Amino acid sequence: MKGSTDVPCETTKSLAIISAGYCRGAPKDGTEAGPTAVLNSGLFAQLQAHFGAIHLDIDRPDGADIHKSLDPDFAGMKNPRAVSVATKHVSERVYEYSRNGSLVLTLGGDHSNAIGSLTGATRGLREKLDSNVAVICVDAHVSINTPDTSPSGNIHGMPLAFATGIAQTKGEGIFDWIEKKHLIDVKRLVYVGTRDVDDKEKEIIATHGIKVFDMDQIRRNGIESVMDEVMNYIGGSIPIHLSCDIDVLDPEWAPSAGHLVPDGLSLDEGQYIARRVHSTERLAAMDLVEVNPSIDLPGVQRTVDSACFLIRSALGVSYE
Ligand SMILES: NC(=[NH2+])NCCC[C@H](N)C(=O)O
């Protein structure tokens, strides 16, 4: 693996969508229905009209349905075997499409799915472009607990720890598929919109010098100025992975999510972030996770609509 240089990103020609409806990383079921709810709300047709043919990947991997009784807690993680198998599958699918030059959209599912999308895109883009990837993580949380620091054992609180290599695999085959070639560079990782960070996560962020623009900074300086800083920080040439947890939005805009945190981004601010990323012409991969259609039923359509707005804005898709 040579992937340590920065090179210009190629213009993406085709779109691949990975439907990653896996939910064992979260304490509540329901996010398995997220991809279908988002795609069936008109988004798929809009994307088709914009991109032409789309690769849609809805295969379910063998092993993802490991019965809970066969998947006891391990090293501080809940449902570790199921999540490891599911995220490996997502990683391999995202890798194939990224390596072939497609823009890849991964729809969760809970946030553990980002272990798959981040590692797959990073590996694929390294191979194709010999380039690092900048990751803009738009999330109410920093999702960087390790199995040791996690207060809950839920792997949806750990994706950035596995995708950066800060969390190491500990045996029994769980996450042993993650190798150096998959790992994102912490110096190219930046968070926007955080407001619920565990104490141990603060230590991890400080130890590794990871860049965070939290809600306080957004309220103080405005989203435009924060995004100027984000863009300066990641630099002007490398491909971008936009990783979105829907809970970054204020619960007013996304009530159907498992871990609501007040005082989040307005939909306009979320769209602004997505548009800024689109305008770089360097978006190579995006994920959108944690839409949970079984929570707050009257709010499901609003949540799905918000998710679709963010996706269309990032992908530069207009509709009517
Ligand atoms: N994707 C999410 N909603 N994550 C919530 C994580 C909450 C908490 N920090 C944990 O690690 O358990």
From TrEMBL:
Binds 2 manganese ions per subunit. Signal peptide: none annotated. The keyword Metal-binding applies. Its EC number is 3.5.3.1. One of its GO terms (molecular function) is manganese ion binding. PROSITE patterns: ARGINASE_2. It is an enzyme of class 3 (hydrolase). It comes from the Eukaryota. InterPro entries: Arginase, Ureohydrolase, Ureohydrolase_dom_sf. Pathway: Nitrogen metabolism; urea cycle; L-ornithine and urea from L-arginine: step 1/1. GO terms for cellular component: cytosol; nucleus. One of its GO terms (biological process) is arginine metabolic process. Keywords: Arginine metabolism, Hydrolase, Manganese, Metal-binding. It catalyses: L-arginine + H2O = urea + L-ornithine. Pfam families: Arginase. Its cofactor is Mn(2+). Belongs to the arginase family. Homotrimer. This is Arginase.
